[in-house]
């Protein structure tokens, strides 16, 4: 049974399966892929979570964007090599099938549900907030009970009962209004986020009717969103007060790294390009180029916008849901704030579109392999899209967006994505080891890490000993149980570095994928333990589904049995 769990698919077999069961329209060029990538990356992150990140880390959050982009570059190189070797839909799921076998492929596929479907819930909720704000700017007031998750209203009501009206901020008062004015079934208030659910269904319909239609809509929205970001940067420069950049890191390294989830969420999506491999005209050439170009463009935009925001307004004022519009209201430029609000709705819609495009193609590929029902691989005879998988994706995103708070999903999304990124980087090491890299039309530049990985470990500990005495004292003050509870992920990071140093010395590992693994592991260690508990539960549910259906129906299982 163990051997069956780790059975692998060859590259030739995967390519053959995709040619037999695809039928997808090959219409995407490198410009289209870059557009889709920017559409996915520049979304709710820069229009929403960037405010919270700046509030916690100050102007220094711009450096965290560079650091996270640095991690994503190494991961993007690994994705690009896989995409040039296995140019089919499925992204990290397919790559794991080649490198690590079926069980890991299923785990990654299940984790990608978090990255695409769950993160799209965040995008839909963020879109709703900007949309409601835009309508209010035009004098159209939706009932508050139609514009938020019930959790916000219930929390506001509880705060009102315990602390009174004087202790409530503006957001609390809006939540209380929703609770008080909502229609009721018995004593239960009817509260849900109607715009979030509606936009999800509309975007799902657009994705359903065709990749070309989706790509055209995406291109238009990307031009608008990049234009407004450049406008914000250029216009905001004239309102920058340099004293707002002092102190640069008001909460120190802890404040900066505490925003890892929010900042990393802003980069999630570049890997979604790889899910469209079967709809590319020349995937081996265009996918690697598109991923790198996307990351470069988006990093420059993120760093510029962060420096402008924290220069226009003191970081303590940026704990808002619409920071780009807020800073112009703050400096009295209301017309610009209105323009930003309107275009933000368009910008976030494009991110929603790309995520809704990616998730069905993951499920379609898993279905081809027999791990999911055959219905998920069904291609619409007219529109040439995975029709059933697209409809299911719309339902999976729309329902949670109606009823759940956005905060719940942000960190959880990052956990699943880090997990996928690490396995993709590790997969390149495997490809190098067994010779699969010889089939790659794009390869991660090879730098022999035989001695460098171990030397880097020693250097890291020298730096920790000389410049992180505060962290060392914190560790010494913790009991064994507290270390396991709060620092176990940090221990995993250091242990993994030692293991990679030993294996790298033995097998001459390529340095760049190792750096990708270590940086992603470090960023993972900065996420809260509660997110990991939820993620482990999520994986447990996935394993139950795999052993109940996927293991028995797997095409590889049938081949082995015959």
Automatic annotation (TrEMBL):
Residue spans crossing the bilayer: 33-55, 61-80, 92-113, 188-208, 220-241, 253-270, 290-315, 335-358, 385-403, 409-430, 451-468, 488-504, 509-525, 531-549
Chief location: membrane
Highest taxon listed in the record's lineage: Bacteria
Membrane topology: Multi-pass membrane protein
InterPro entries recorded: AA/rel_permease1, CAT_C
Cellular compartments annotated: Membrane
Gene Ontology molecular function terms on file: amino acid transmembrane transporter activity
Pfam families for the chain: AA_permease_2 (PF13520), AA_permease_C (PF13906)
Cationic amino acid transporter C-terminal domain location: 511-554
A cellular-component GO term for this protein: membrane
Keyword terms: Membrane, Transmembrane, Transmembrane helix, Transport
Name used for this protein in its record: Amino acid permease-associated region
């Amino acid at each position: 049974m163990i051997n069956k769990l780790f059975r692998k698919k060859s590259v030739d077999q995967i390519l053959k399966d995709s040619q037999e069961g695809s039928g997808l329209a090959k219409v995407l060029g490198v410009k289209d892929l870059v557009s889709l990538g920017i559409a996915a990356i520049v979304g709710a992150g820069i229009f929403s979570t960037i405010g919270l990140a700046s509030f916690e880390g100050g102007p220094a959050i711009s450096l965290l964007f560079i650091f996270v982009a640095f991690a994503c570059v190494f991961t993007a190189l690994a994705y690009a090599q896989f995409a040039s070797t296995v140019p089919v839909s499925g992204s990290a799921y397919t790559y794991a099938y080649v490198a690590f076998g079926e069980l890991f492929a299923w785990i990654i596929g299940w984790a990608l549900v978090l990255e695409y479907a769950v993160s799209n819930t965040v995008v839909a909720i963020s879109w709703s907030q900007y949309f409601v704000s835009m309508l209010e700017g035009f004098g159209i007031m939706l009932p508050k009970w139609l514009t938020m998750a019930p959790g916000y209203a219930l929390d506001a009501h509880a705060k009102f009962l315990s602390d009174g009206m004087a202790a409530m901020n503006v957001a609390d008062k809006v939540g209380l209004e929703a609770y008080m004015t909502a229609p009721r079934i018995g004593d239960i208030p009817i509260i849900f986020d109607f715009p979030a659910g509606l936009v999800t269904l509309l975007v799902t319909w657009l994705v359903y009717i065709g990749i070309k239609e989706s790509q055209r809509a995406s291109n238009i929205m990307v031009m608008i969103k990049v234009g407004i970001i450049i406008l914000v940067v250029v216009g905001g420069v004239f309102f920058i007060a340099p004293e707002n950049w002092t102190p640069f890191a008001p909460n120190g390294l802890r404040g900066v790294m505490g925003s890892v989830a929010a900042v990393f969420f802003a980069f999630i999506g570049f890997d979604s390009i790889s899910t469209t491999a079967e709809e590319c005209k020349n995937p081996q050439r265009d996918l690697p180029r598109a991923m790198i170009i996307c990351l470069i463009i988006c990093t420059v935009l993120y760093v510029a916008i962060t420096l402008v925001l924290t220069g226009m307004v003191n970081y303590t004022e940026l704990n808002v849901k619409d920071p780009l519009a807020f800073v112009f209201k703050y400096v009295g430029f209301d017309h610009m704030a209105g323009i930003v609000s309107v275009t933000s709705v368009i910008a976030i819609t494009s991110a929603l579109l790309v995520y809704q495009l990616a998730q069905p193609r993951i499920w379609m590929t898993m279905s081809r392999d027999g791990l999911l029902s055959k219905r998920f691989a069904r291609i619409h005879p007219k529109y040439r899209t995975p029709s059933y998988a697209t409809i299911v994706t719309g339902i999976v995103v729309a329902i949670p967006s109606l009823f759940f708070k956005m905060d719940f999903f942000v960190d959880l999304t990052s956990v699943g994505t880090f997990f996928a990124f690490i396995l993709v980087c590790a997969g390149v090491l495997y490809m190098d080891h067994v010779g699969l890299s010889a089939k790659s039309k794009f390869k991660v530049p090879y730098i022999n890490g035989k001695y460098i990985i171990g030397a880097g470990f020693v250097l890291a500990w020298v730096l920790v000993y000389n410049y992180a005495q505060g962290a060392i004292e914190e560790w010494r003050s913790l009991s064994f149980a507290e270390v396991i509870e709060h620092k176990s992920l940090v221990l995993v990071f250091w242990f993994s570095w030692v293991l990679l140093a030993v294996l790298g010395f033995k097998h001459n590992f390529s340095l760049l994928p190792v750096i990708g693994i270590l940086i992603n592991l470090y960023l993972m260690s900065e996420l809260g333990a509660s997110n990991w508990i939820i993620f482990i539960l999520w994986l447990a549910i996935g394993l139950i589904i795999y052993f109940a259906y996927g293991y028995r129906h797997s095409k590889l299982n049938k081949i082995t049995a015959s």
